[in-house]
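Subject: design request, 178 residues
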């Protein structure tokens, strides 16, 4: 189970493709490349949306999805000094990252993850994978209805349902006969 928790932590870092948590902890910048068919920015709603064939490349992993939405919160210090006539964009701070539609992650070491929706809330430090989430590490895999990973506590939980119970498959060394 420790291997799955480590993998989930790595997945969280990939989901933070903007590098917010990773660079704050490591103190170094890493190149993050995002490609998509369309990018839109809504200054009023404080939202950046990548749509269509979204591909995120990080030195440790790649992520694919149909759509990624980044929700921002306004910088309070700038908001207080900004006049009503000031129409300049305020990119704010990242609050939440949501990947939707055939979300797929592949780590450089071969570990993979799939789900329909992955939401990371930077404030709470919780990553929620929904829509038939599956994590694999070689022959090991875990799946359920929802996978929650609590980044700050470095713990995870897999929640099943009657339609999609928790299923964990772990390989163990073959026992030899004496």
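Subject: RE: design request

Done. Sequence follows.
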């Amino acid at each position: 189970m420790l291997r799955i928790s480590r993998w989930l932590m790595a997945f969280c870092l990939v989901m933070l493709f903007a590098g917010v948590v990773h660079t704050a902890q490591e103190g170094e910048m890493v190149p993050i490349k995002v490609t998509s068919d369309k990018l839109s920015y809504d200054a009023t709603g404080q939202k950046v949306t990548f749509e269509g064939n979204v591909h995120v490349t990080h030195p440790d992993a790649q992520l694919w999805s149909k759509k990624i939405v980044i929700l921002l919160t306004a910088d309070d210090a700038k908001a207080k000094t900004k006049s009503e006539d000031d129409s300049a964009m305020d990119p704010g701070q990242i609050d939440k990252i949501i990947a939707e539609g055939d979300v797929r992650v592949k780590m450089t070491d071969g570990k993979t993850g799939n789900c329909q929706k992955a939401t990371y809330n930077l404030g709470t430090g919780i990553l929620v994978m929904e829509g038939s989430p599956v994590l694999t590490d070689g022959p090991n895999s875990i799946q359920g209805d929802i996978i929650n990973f609590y980044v700050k506590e470095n713990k995870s939980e897999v929640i099943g349902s009657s339609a999609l119970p928790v299923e964990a498959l772990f390989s163990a060394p073959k026992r030899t006969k004496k």
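The chain has one domain: 2-77+87-169.
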